[in-house]
Amino acid sequence: MDGNGRWAEERRRPRLFGHKAGVESVREIVETASEIGIGVLTLYAFSTENWNRPAGEVSGLMGLLKSYLQSELRTMVRNGIRLQCLGEQDRLPEDVGAVLRQTIADTRSCQGMVLNLALSYGGRSEMVLAVRELARKCREGILDWRALSEASISDHLFTAGQPDPDLLIRTGGEHRLSNFLLWQSSYAELYFTETRWPDFRKQQFLEAIATFHLRQRRFGRTGAQVQEG
Ligand code: FPP
């Protein structure tokens, strides 16, 4: 969800003003995704690297996150949205962690879209945690190292049990992955847009999805093979 800071600076306002406007886009995109039947939506809200931002911006973002969760709980339950967190939850401030755990628990039995919030998330550190866990299980004889597979790794990531993403959207004009779902995105279609996150609303989201539907996904096969089915 890139471009909040620049969106605010372009309006000669503090960066947090951009993040606040970004929350409105979050609401609209979550609602749209759920409406059109998307199974899993992941929002990269805070990376492990974002802890290095000025303390005021970090605490402002944590406050926005907490109030978003508190204000959206009823809507989530009504729309059957199940909240999950990807990332190192124990690094979050205690009050934010508590609201997050409560919202996850309160939406646990929802059957509609899964909403993943990537918080204190980094793709590489996620893989390190998975490898450590696999190593422990091998050492304790729970797993046989010769039987380790791609599925073993997928099963030990924060996204265990979820499908890999089909479409990865990056707003704000940057053309990189920035440590986001590195393992899971190997075959994701990438969509880059100049639009700053606060201006990325329902119409822009539907355009991204329409573009996705025009892509031919070959998964290593030839175009002719794909057309044969
Ligand atoms: C990146 O833009 C955005 C973030 C680091 C924070 C995103 C967080 C929110 C929109 C609010 C809280 C989250 C939820 C789910 C309610 P940037 O600051 O890097 O923008 P820039 O590239 O223009 O500087």
How would you describe this structure to a colleague?
This protein has helices at 4-10, 15-35, 55-78, 94-106, 123-139, 150-154, 202-214, 223-228, and strands at residues 40-47, 82-86, 114-121, 167-170, 189-192. By secondary structure, it is of the alpha/beta class. The strands form two sheets. It has a three-stranded parallel beta sheet with strand order 1-3-2, with helices on both faces. A two-stranded parallel sheet has the order 4-5. The longest helix is centred in the N-terminal third of the chain and has 24 residues, at 55-78. The two termini are 35 Å apart.
Strand coverage percent: 5-15%
> Secondary-structure element sequence?
HHEHEHEHHEEHH
Question: Between the first and last Cα atoms, what is the distance in angstroms?
Answer: 35 Å
- State the helix count: 8
Shape: globular
Helix fraction, binned, reads: 40-55%
* Major sheet summary line: 3 strands, parallel
Name the strands of the widest sheet in spatial order.
Answer: 1-3-2
Oligomer: single chain
Bound small molecules, by name, code or SMILES, are: farnesyl diphosphate
Q: Can you describe this structure in just a few lines?
A:
With 229 residues, this protein is α/β, with parallel strands linked by helices.
Task: Describe the secondary-structure layout.
Layout: H1 4-10, H2 15-35, E1 40-47, H3 55-78, E2 82-86, H4 94-106, E3 114-121, H5 123-139, H6 150-154, E4 167-170, E5 189-192, H7 202-214, H8 223-228
Parallel strand pairs: 1-3, 2-3, 4-5
Bound molecules: farnesyl diphosphate (FPP).
